[in-house]
Design brief:
Length: 278
């Protein structure tokens, strides 16, 4: 067999044992490193999951982890605001306590003519801010198409010592205040009293179905109409003709008679919007 035969025989079992040991070690390493079904599924996700895994494994630093090379962060979804629900008559309280909060506001005089100081009050328990209402009314009376701009009066918002008061009241309270002057407002209308103006909350919030415009525009008509009475225009006016602007002293809530709804005493050219007396 040759002198090397006896040397080869003991080597074979050692080689076989070594190979077997290597197979066992490789198999153990493979089993230990195989991720298993759950980890495998997670690894098939997008790059954001990989970034989240890294962030969880690394200590918190207060900064966002950098994206993997070749990837970009998705922009954050914009937060959408819910669409406001339209206000309906069911949202306007029918009655209130009959007490009022006076806006603690002081404005500068606007316009020319007899000085008139006014304060604004809102009935307690309603969802209208006295300060906000006062600011809105102040802008209405200072408008270029309003009474102040054409010499019919100088108006100043005050919190005390007013010549007249503008009150925004629930329908039941408005009816009570107006009925004291012999006026039946039927839970729907505004009126002028001996000490000022009463604005029906329903009209302030909802406007009028006869008026072609937003409730905020109808408020202009309310104030201009009632303040018109306050400065001495006692008579209501009618429509001056089909297609013409309705006079601000017309009771537009009762119908337009062919006129176009209008919230201002004067048109854009400074002409008084007139009509036949009623």
């Amino acid at each position: 067999m040759g002198r090397y035969g006896r040397v080869r025989r003991p080597i074979r079992p050692l080689v076989a044992a070594g190979i077997a040991l290597a197979v066992v070690i490789i198999g153990a390493v493979a089993v230990a490193s195989w991720p298993g079904p759950e980890a495998e599924a997670d690894a098939q996700g997008d790059g954001a999951k990989s970034g989240a895994s890294r962030a969880a494994a690394s200590p918190a630093t207060g900064t966002e982890p950098e994206p993997e090379p070749g990837t970009t962060r998705s922009p954050e979804e914009p937060k959408t605001k819910p669409t406001p629900k339209p206000t309906t008559s069911a949202d306007v309280p029918v009655s209130g306590p009959g007490t009022f909060t006076t806006a603690q506001s002081q404005g500068d005089p606007v316009g020319s003519g007899p000085p008139r100081r006014y304060s604004v009050q809102v009935e307690n328990g309603v969802d209208v801010s006295a300060a906000d209402a006062a600011g809105e009314i102040e802008k209405i009376l200072a408008h270029p198409q309003g009474w102040a701009a054409h010499g019919r009066g100088s108006f100043q918002l005050v919190s005390s010592g007013a010549d007249f008061v503008i009150r925004i009241a629930t329908p039941a309270t408005a009816d009570k205040l107006c009925l004291a002057q012999g006026l039946n407002t039927r839970g729907e209308l505004n009126c002028e009293t001996v000490d000022g103006v009463v604005v029906n909350l329903r009209r302030w919030v909802l406007g009028s179905p006869q008026f072609d415009g937003e409730p905020s525009e109808y408020r202009h008509l309310i104030i201009n109409h009632e303040v018109g009475h306050e400065i001495g225009l006692r008579q209501h006016l009618g429509c001056g003709g089909p297609g013409k602007l309705a006079p601000v002293m017309m009771q537009q809530i009762k119908g337009l008679d062919g006129c176009r709804s209008n919230a201002w005493p004067y048109d854009k050219d400074g002409t008084y919007v007139d009509g036949p007396g009623l």
